[in-house]
Each structure stands twice: as structure tokens, then as C-alpha cells.
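Technical annex B. To support the medicinal chemistry partners, we prepared a structural model of the target in complex with WT7, based solely on the information shown next.
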Amino acid sequence: MSGMSQLLVEDRLFQAPKAFSKKAAISSMKQYKAMCQAFENDFDGTWARLAKETLYWKKPFKTVLDESEAPFYKWFSEGTTNASYNCTDRIIKAGLGEKTAIIFESDAGDVTRISYQELHERVCKFANGLRALGVGKGDRVVLYMAMSIEGVVAMQACARIGATHSVVFGGFSAKSLEERIVDVGATTVITADEQMRGGKQLPLKAIVDEALELGAKSIVKNVIVYKRTGSETVPFTPGRDHWMHDVSAKQSKKCEPEWVEAEHPLFVLYTSGSTGKPKGVVHATGGYLLWANLTMQWTFDLRQNDVFWCTADIGWITGHSYIAYGPLSVGGTQIVFEGLPTYPNAGRFWDMIERHKVSIFYTAPTAIRSLIKASDLNPDTHPKNYKLKSLRLLGSVGEPINPEAWMWYHKNVGGEKCPIVDTFWQTETGGHMITPLPGATPLVPGSCTLPLPGIMAAIVDETGQDMPNGQGGILVVKKPWPSMIRNIWNDPERFKKSYFPADLGGNLYLAGDGAIRNAKTAYFTITGRIDDVLNVSGHRMGTMEIESCLVAHSDVAEAAVVGRPDDLTGEAIVAYVVLKGARPEGEAAQKKALELRNWVNKEIGPIAKPKEIRFGDNLPKTRSGKIMRRLLRVLAKGEDITQDTSTLENPGILEQLKHAV
Ligand code: WT7
């Protein structure tokens, strides 16, 4: 796939289908522009109106945006609310108690449905159980779970009692889990005995125990375990460990929500940055929930009879905003899926869309690309073998979608009648930022089109000056928005430096991506990260994080990690390693490379595992000792170096690093 070069000349335009626009919440560009204009005319007033119309406030707010401690912005300060109340009680009061909230499908294909009433009951009982264990407002609770109704219940229950949750993706290692538990200072961990993936039972509780042994046990008082597989071999420490069903068992179905201030941290979610240590992104209750709700209405145009399916995991921001909170806050019916897109075969998504009559489907380009490949190999898994006519809207998230994948998705999944919303956003933004509105925006494959109303996205140069359309630059947001990151947990200095850098004037939000606006349409195209962050299969990984992990291996002297374009995963991780001993060659090099790849897999998790490792006697460095990553990226692509290498201390090294072992 030719990726970027084709993307920049893309000029196919897909108008919003008339049938879609007719019923859509935002049905024309004229309406979109009027909404943007409302923010231009009265920024605070427009946000205030939306916040009042959208959420239940126990105590109304007076201030809309408080900039007094910028860039630590506050929204709706005096207001009090509760996320769980807004996602269950408020929906039931609107008469939707019997409506299906979640259709859960297990890895093996068993289906469980729960109504808003039932969800409410389970959240309340578990929330009461947490309170009985001494968990309350301001406490931090780490979740290490797989996709399940219980995972959503646990997040909602934390929100109900004002405990701040921090979900750690179930694919992270014990060490990564331990670091996050300790950094966030969690007193309680919620997990499952095991998880089911692709027919296999994989450990969760055993990894929690390992994390506790690594150091987290000095702060964790309770471990709550959802019994998923009932495996007999799962370790259990009486006194500290509790079964989730026991915690809820004798509790009341009523649970008075903890009315928290709008700024109360709803959750902390760790993500990779350009230094070795992951950042705990803090999100505030009121503003976050407002945007999760509004984007469900604007981007997904959600209606009462929709069946919504976001295929992300609750361990990522997408699963927070578009599974645990957004769909529930609008009273939607959604699918929660435990398994893999390729099990029992690569037709699983299409089969589920057909069986559950999914109308809005939201997935990642990586998944689409892997299913294209799978259907080439096994035509039985091609979407054309399934009845997908329930679909009315498709979405894409996590990485740029290449036009080829976009066209395939449009034709074969959407039957050429479903708009595709290519949603650009980040863990830090809380919800969508730049995305088409399906009933209004003409689509261009590979472009996330235009910012949502109220989002003041722009492209600037290194000094913060606006760039004209048609010229690439740095993507920024010029004004705060309600669901923006509030802080980095325990590290306000890093927050300021990472997101509001002084070079740009200190008041522009720096997304960390490059972008370009089309000279004619002003549409945005994201050109990729401008920092040392990689995007592998839609997962964010810091190169420094992998480097620190590699040098922590006793045989490694030095390491440099770069990304290389990959047809399937977007980017692939290539690591250049200098060993303490002699540079290995042939079979010895292969053995060592395998060992190091497995080491990263064990220390961080499978998503960080380098695709390729190359060994050198040294790394290419300038005379001042700076590693020339630019050159390493060229070599990783298999291209010849055409740049001047005369400033290199050791140009001879490049020859060694040309080839994979
Ligand atoms: C980074 C954020 C968005 C939630 C899931 C990932 C890249 C995300 C797109 C898109 C091009 C995209 C950016 C961004 N990205 N969506 N539609 N087009 N790039 O959240 O892990 O915080 O990663 O993902 O590089 O900065 P995340």
C-alpha cells in the first residue's frame, strides 16, 4: 500500500447520503457551520447551554471555563454531578429502564443481554460492596480485566462512589501493571480469574499477584476477582482477595451516588509519551462526560433504535469514551465483545453485525487491514457472505486509515451507502476532535475532515504561527475544551511541558501529531506523530519506553528504537541493539534477537515486542554523541542513505545495521 503519497493527492469526494442526512441530528454543512459560529460568537455561553441540556447537575455550575490557573483549565467548577447517575438513573427516569443497555457476546459466542434497570442494579450493588470494603471518594482503583459486563459495571461503580478508576489493558505485563498501580496509588485492584481469547484461557489474577509481589502489595488492600472461567488453579489470598459476586451479594439495590464536583477526577488512564515513563492522563467528571455524550450524538448520530458497536477494549480511551460512558450516557444499546476478530474465523465481526443487527460499527484501520488480508486468503470470511444491511454508519479510529482500506470498508462493509467517520482524537482529548459529521460532511478517504463544533484545531509552525492551508505543520488546539486532559497524575510539570510548551507560546494545546489542511477544502489530514511515539496497530508506544526496557536486559549496552511503515500494523517496531559482548552474527544473532523480543514482550507486553532487532558494534552518532534516529529510520525501511553522513562519528556502523538478522 502506498500510504501517504496517495493520501495527499486523494480527490474522491463522497457526499453524505440523502437518506442519512434527512434524519440526521446534524444534516447539512450549513448547520455544522452555524454550530461552529455559535462557539465563535459566544464560546462560554454555548458550552454552558450544552452542558445544561445534556447532563444532570445536582448543583448547577456558575463558571463555565476557569482559566485562572492556565493551562490547568477548569470547567463547570461549582457544579456537582455523577457519571454513573447520568449513565443509568437518568436513562431509567427517561423511561428506558427496560431497554437493552449491553448485548455481551463471549469469546465462544454466548450472548447475554442486560437492561438499563439491571445494569443500574448491578452497579449499585457493587458500588455498595466497594464502600463496605472502605473504598470511597478520591481513592484510586485499578482495573485489570478483559471485555465483560463486569468491567463496565466496575468502572461505573467506581464513578458512582467517586473513586477514580485506572484501567490497565489486560495485555500489559505484571511489571507494567505494578508501575501503574504504584504511580496512581491504588488501594484496590479489580480483576478476573482469567480471560478467554481465541478459545484460550489466559491468566489475569496470577499476573495481578505477580504485580503485587513486585512491590504493589505495600499499598493494595483489596483485590476483587470476577469469576470468569472458574479455573481451579487461580491463586487466592483470603482476607485480601474477594470474589466480585461476594462483594455485591448482600448489598442493597439502592446506592446514593457520591455527588462530585465537575472537576473531580473520573479516571486516570496511562498512555505512552516521549520519555520512558508512561503518563497518567487525568480526566475530570463533568467535561469528559459532556463530550462523550455530545460526540455520541454528533459523530455517531445515535438514535434510540440503533445498535452500536465499538470494538475497542475498555483498557484504552476508545473503550472508556465509546463503551463505558458515551453509549450509556445517551441510553444507547451496545455490543460488548470479549473475543477476537479472527476467532473462530475472520468473519466473526461480520457474523456478529448480522446476528445482532448492528447499525453503527466503530473499529480500527488495523483490524480492517487484517480482515482484508484474511478474506483474500479465505474468501468465506469476506463480508459479502454476510447480511450487513442493518449497518447505517461506519467509524474508524486510532491511526490514519489508508485510502485502500477506506474504499474496501466503504464498499464491502458499508455497501456504498454508509458514511465513514474517520475520527481523529487521543487519550488526552477524551473524545473526538476532528471528524466528519455523517449527515453533513462530504468525505475524502484518508482525511478526518474538519474539527467538531467548539474544537479550535489549527496548524502552526515551530514558533506557534499559523500555517496557510496546503502547508504541513504542527497540529494544535487553540482553545480549551471540556473533555481535555486536566493533568498528568503526580506530574504537573510534565503536563505543562508536554501539552503547552513554551516554544509555542504556552497557550496552544500540542497534540503531538503533524497535519496538513487541503488548500481547497481546508480538510485535515494527519501525517503522523512528531515525537518519539509510535503507533502500532492503533496502540501508542513510546520508543524510549522500549529502549529503557531493552537496556534493562543484562546483555544490552545500548539500544535505539524506531518505527517503520507496515502494511498491516501501520507502524512496526525496529530495535537497534549494541550488546555488552561481541556483536553476534548468523544463528547466534537470531537466537539473541528472539531472546530480546521475548524479553520486551514479558517486561512491557506483546504490543511493545519489536518486529525486528538489528545488532551493531555501536549506533550511528554525531560527534556530540547524539544518536541519529533519522538515519536509523531510513535503514529500517530498507532504503539507501542519501543524506550527508559526514557529521557522523562512525559512518562505518551504518553498513552493519542495514539488514535484519
Ligand atoms: C494518536 C492517539 C483516538 C483514540 C485511540 C488512540 C493517532 C488516532 C487517528 C485518526 C490519524 C489518528 C494520532 C494520535 N490517531 N486517531 N483518525 N487518524 N491518526 O488514542 O492511544 O491516545 O493515540 O493516535 O497519532 O495522536 P491514543
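Notes passed to the chemistry partners:
Residues 350 and 386 are 6 Å apart (CA to CA).
The chain has 21 helices and 30 strands.
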